[in-house]
Amino acid sequence: MIRVPMTAAGEKALRAELEQLKTVDRPRVIADIAEAREHGDLKENAEYHAAREQQGFIEGRIQDLESKLSNCQVIDVSAIPATGKVIFGTTVTIINLDTEETKTYQIVGDDEADIKAGKISVNSPIARGLVGKEEGDVVNIQTPGGATEFEIDEVAHL
To answer: DSSP for 56-108?
Structure first.
């Protein structure tokens, strides 16, 4: 079985979503289905079909979350001594040497990635180019716009 890396915060968020689906959303949809059944003919009952579709989505998402959580390896980067080296879970500040633009990213698992929140997948080209490097290193990363040089300004264990 392949273990999928995940930050402690990512695991907590998935567990919260799973709890919401099981304790709030699933019972609500079951009640909606029961109510729609009382309206009579199920063949032409749009409320019933919409509720059943919603139930299918919820059950699928529950299975997906349970599978991800059972296969995850939680890595709490704050418990790992800071060495200045880029590893999974660290927050990295890089400087684009062409534009002098500074960006900060946290390297996270695939399910946690959210570029708008500054979280990039460990499997993304930028993260792959950074992992294993240290503060002060200059790395050449192939981006959609072509090869770009970045300097690793800071590596934080948050």
So the answer is: HHHHHHHHHHHHHHHTEEEE-GGGSPP-SB--TT-EEEEEETTT--EEEEEEE
Cα–Cα distance for residue pair 33/29, rounded to 1 Å:
6
**Token pair 């915060």 in the structure block, residue:** 9
Question: Domains in the chain, ordered, with CATH?
Answer: 4-74 (1.10.287.180), 77-156 (3.10.50.30)
DSSP code for 41: -
Contact 51, 70 (CB under 8 A): no
pLDDT digits (tens, 9 = 90+) for 3-53: 889 999 999 999 999 999 999 999 999 999 998 888 877 777 888 999 999
pTM of the entire predicted model: 0.80
